[in-house]
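Example record

The entry below shows one chain as it appears in the dataset: sequence first, then structure tokens.
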Amino acid sequence: MPRLKFFCLAVMLAPLLLQAQTSPDSSIRQSIARAVTSSAADQDSFLDQIAASSGVSKTGHDLLASWSNGEIYLYTDAGGQVVPIILEQSDSTDKTRAFRVDTGELLKDSNGTEIMIDPTEATSSDVNASLRKKIQRTLDLLSLSDPNPEARRAMVFKLGFSQKAENLPLLETRLKLETDPGVRKTLYEAEALIQLADAAHPERQVAAADSLAKLNCIGALDDLRGLSESKSASAETKLAAAKASQAIQSYLAVVNFFGTIFHGVSLGSILLVSALGLAITFGLMGVINMAHGEMIAVGAYTTYVVENVFRDGLPLSPLGIRIFLPGMHLTGWSFQTYFLFAIPLSFLVAALAGLALERLVIRFLYRRVLESLLATWGISLIMQQLFRLVFGANNVQVNSPSWLLGNFTISDVVLGYNRIFVIVFAVLIVVGTWLLLTKTPLGLFIRAVIQDRDMAACMGVPTQRVNMLTFAFGSGLAGLAGAFLSQIGNVGPSLGQSYIIDSFMTVVVGGVGSIAGTVVSALGIGCSDQVLQQVLGSPVLGKIMVLTAIILFLQWKPGGFFPTRSRTLDS
């Protein structure tokens, strides 16, 4: 029975042992070791075999790069066997350890003891210009067959923009095997770029220019412009290059337009979230809350605290008292989820701050516009100083989670994940706010108070409670805006001041108390700002033109896009 168990165990472990012995990493090491110690003719054969292999690991790439750089040495052991090695970093006069290329293990003697060798005892492997060129070609071929499409695309881009005719066969071979649409498009562009540089065959240059125009290859624009202005090129070639350049420029203008609109929509989404709460509180209570920007900063700092708690903790010094918020020491995807927790916490903390502000100050200043403006302005200065005392005067950095980094491309228009997230979440916030105002008892009370506060109070509406909850909800929305802004830039005590003016402009242009007007105004101001900056070529001039347009618009329609008709506002 014991023998039977041992036999079964051996049968189960045999495939694993065989796989370990013939793993790709081990195989490529042995192939490179044999190539280093072989003759020039055999080296070509070994390199061709390595280039034809698939699944070459990073170790294989690094070893080939080390060989090309002359960092692989030959050492003759006591038995007369030549062993390719890589020396450990050390002074040239000291003995050092060496790693075998074929196994990756430390160099040992016959007894299994590590050997310390004098670097002068090792002979550098002979790498001439021809061999270095062949090794580089092998590395290029390996990159062209990399499992990652982005890695293949990057290598195709590199080979194509080198415009070397010797790379054309490599690209043509890869084109027959490639299945990814994006990589195939880059392969066609690379082939056309190489043919565009073939001055000996003008007909190929004409065909290449036409192909680049059909492919809308933005990267070829400089080459086409240079060819159209070349004195040595034929008239037909120059005409084809000029036409292709014009066609790509037209396509580039379209790409820039949609890219600008996307950035404008994302900017408008941030303005929308930051101004939505202000629109509700301003329309409901007629209170000009100059501390609304600090509610944005509260949300941003809450995100900063949550990130550090998820990581290693956060030392703070409020009023000179040193405290330490312990961290959970999370890593990987568990840490990357911190922003999902920061979003509701940002809303909650900002809402509580708004609730305290309304109970302590605002409720005594209803219908006293000037006093409320001055009081909230003073509160904003106090809150900014508190931020400095607790978090420091310098800006702090909030690292975006990995799933918000990066982007994807649609017809060369780059769409960032973080901006798409802001746009989608802004839509959800608008829908949630609309449902709150139209489908809940609190929303009914809010609309009643907006229409006529005194009559709503006579009908039994608890106006004080409605004011309190509405102000807290508006402040919570500002906190959400701060959470989003923390993913785009740094967080500092003056963060809210950068958006308070834009928020008020958004509310006034849209119509005080109008949700639909706030949406239209935010998107309009955001897109106009980005478009004018691109057209005028100056961010400052763009903002000046937007402000001028807003002033002229308010002269025409003082009530904004959707003025709210109510006895409270008319009185």
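Notes for this example: Confidence is low (pLDDT under 50) at residues 1-22, 567-571. The chain has three domains: 73-124, 146-233, 255-570.
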